[in-house]
Amino acid sequence: MSEPEHSPSGERNRAADQGRKPGSDDTELNARLERLNSSLSDVRAKAPVPEATGATDTSSRSGVALAFRLGAEFVSGVLVGAAIGYGIDRFLAISPWGLIVFTLIGFAAGVINMMRAAGEGPSRNRPKS
Amino acid sequence: MTVDPIHQFEIKRFVDLLNVSGVQFSFTNAAVFMFGIVAIVFLFLTYATRGRTLVPGRAQSVAEMSYEFIAKMVRDSAGSQGMVFFPFVFTLFTFVLVANVVGLIPYTFTVTAHLVVTAALALLVIGTVIVYGFFKHGTHFLHLFVPSGVPGFLLPFLVVIEVVSFLSRPISLSLRLFANMLAGHIALKVFAFFVVGLASAGVVGWFGATLPFFMIVALTALELLVAVLQAYVFAVLTSIYLNDAIHPGH
């Protein structure tokens, strides 16, 4: 076991000392595990808080990230629509109708993508964005 | 010294392996870095989990934290059934993360700044979604494209839109990672060239050169953040998309 550890070292040493007494090994170990457990659950209870503040602290950063994300969603929708339209034009020789119609559909899909990414609009069954 | 901010993305062929009907398969610097990334992840995780002590050391807590982070993310967005895909998401996350971070070291090659690489990863994700969705739910998977509560005459229209929206996912997934890494690295290089250009313009230039120099410092910090954030976003979106494969329809 490596030594550096967060728990107060005094308590730790005391626990180690008591652990050396014959016969009390199991109970001592159990007590230590119990203590570790309770402090772990304390940590777990506290854990979401720093995460949340971290997210709000850097709101400008996440704003940029969100903008990037929404932009990518929208552009990819349009691009895919246009690509499908172009492909349909090529195969069915109905140029330029496929490109026109599917680019418009691509715009709609891009908007839907964007609204989903922003957590609004017609969601699929996702628990959480 | 020429000003060429794209030079860093150049693919160099090291060994030509085989030529299949005009398509050359080679061992390139990108391949070297990808093997390196996998080796880094593998060696680190092996090293970190060798002791398996009750009270983890530093390396072991990094490994445990990354496990718990990804596990929580997968559970939150894909439910507990989604844990089938935990190894997949974890592999993607660590690969993208290490690739992004390694790319920030000067003189290295950024694998994820190539659209081919990110597109391959995104197609892998979407392929998994489609194959698993059909395998698990059969044709019920297609209910993913049928929004509920829509008047009948609008339905065909909306289904087409939903299909396009689904098809745009791999594009946006790959485009986002690729564009972020490419833009960041080009911005870094451009400011670096400003430093060199100004510094060669005499004493006044030296003072001027400090400005883009500090900009580079700031940009490097920002890029580190973007590198980690994009790996996280890639993993989150992967698990959201996998959720559609696990629970399609309504």
TrEMBL record, chain A:
Residues 1-61 are annotated as: Disordered. The chain crosses the membrane at residues 66-88, 94-115. The keyword Membrane applies. Signal peptide: none annotated. Keywords: Membrane, Transmembrane, Transmembrane helix. Pfam families: ATPase_gene1. Residues 1-35 have a biased composition (Basic and acidic residues). It comes from the Bacteria. The keyword tRNA-binding does not apply. This is ATP synthase protein I.
TrEMBL record, chain B:
Gene3D superfamilies: ATP synthase, F0 complex, subunit A (1.20.120.220). Pfam families: ATP-synt_A. It is found in: Cell membrane; Membrane. Keywords: ATP synthesis, Cell membrane, CF(0), Hydrogen ion transport, Ion transport, Membrane, Transmembrane, Transmembrane helix, Transport. Key component of the proton channel; it plays a direct role in the translocation of protons across the membrane. This is ATP synthase subunit a. The chain crosses the membrane at residues 27-48, 82-105, 111-135, 142-166, 186-207, 214-242. NCBIfam families: ATP_synt_6_or_A, PRK05815.2-4. Belongs to the ATPase A chain family. CDD domains: ATP-synt_Fo_a_6. It is a multi-pass membrane protein. The keyword Ion transport applies. It comes from Xanthobacter agilis. It comes from the Bacteria.
